[in-house]
Amino acid sequence: MSESLDRPSETKKATITRWFLRVSAGLVAVILIASISLMLTFTSAKLKVPSVDVGDLPPASPPAGMSVSVLPTGSYQSRAALTFNGGSWSDIRHLAMTALLVRHPKGNLLIDAGAGKNVDDQVKLMPTIQRLTTDYTKAVPAAAQLAAGGIQLTDLAGVIPTHAHLDHISGLDDLGGVPVLVNAKGKRWIDSKKEGTEVINSLHDVNYRLYDFEGGPYLGFPRSHDVWGDGSVVIVPAPGHTPDSVVVFVNLPSGTRYDDDVSGSGQEAGKSSEIHVLPDRKHTIC
Questions:
Q1: CA proximity to 67, closest of 219, 285, 272, 284
Q2: How far lies 247's CA from each of 176, 219, 225, 237, 239, in Å?
Q3: Which residues lie below 8 Å from residue 112, measured CB to CB, with a gap of 6+?
């Protein structure tokens, strides 16, 4: 009698077990399909580059005392898919964390600040997927290189971040109130505290100074801002990678012209005889 009573109970347990296994398999299948679909969005793709009329080379009258120095502060490796639209998940990019010092009679400027002394703590604030897929190497922070080169923070008129990601603004934490030049759209993005702004919003007492793109078209860009009014340092809006992204053009007295890719890569800077490492430092320009 007891055996017959136990059978329905066992049958019910078996039914529940089969139902649970089917549901679990279904959930696994859904997660797998969703994961594959997500990964497919990171497959490489050829970017369509529109034809742009850059016009004539803009006039520039940089002063004789102007010069440029590169300050390598580290490097990092990241997946191309997390670096630019159309990048491949399997493509590993080697990128520099570099600041560029522009000496100018009207005031010295830093373009980007590179990795600072607190970069290890700042990396922990990055979005999880970026933190887990980024490997970085530290060098000497920009502030220490400036001090070793005999340049005081009070000698800096400002810092121009090309955008507010860690590899460009980490070193702001070491610069003690030096004005940080941003445009209104960039400041709104920073204040939004959206993903990508975690590090810059963790910095204390950032001395923001707003500028406008009051100038006309510049080399295919619709607007521009001439920092010193002589065409030596010109900023243009380049949103895309981030809403606050800009390109900074630096024009030297020799007639040689650069944009902020020099600050981003370091390789071209190292090959140029007109861009120097600060004295008294034994850094190798990568």
A1: 272
A2: 25, 11, 11, 6, 9
A3: 98, 99, 100, 159, 160, 161, 162, 168, 169, 260, 263, 264
Would you list the DSSP string of 3-40? HHHHHHHHHHHHHHHHHHHHHHHHHHHHHHHHHHHHHH
Task: Count the neighbouring beta carbons within 10 Å of the beta carbon of residue 214.
Answer: 9
pLDDT digits (tens, 9 = 90+) for 47-95: 677 777 777 889 999 999 899 999 999 998 877 776 766 777 778 888 8
Total length of the chain: 286
Residues 6+ positions from 274 with CB-CB distance below 8 Å: 67, 68, 252, 254, 256
- Tell me the pTM: 0.76
The residue among 66, 54, 55 whose CA lies nearest residue 255 is 66
Q: Which amino acid is at 52?
A: V
Bridge pairing between strands 275-277 and 67-79: parallel
| 3-state secondary structure (DSSP) of residue 235 | strand
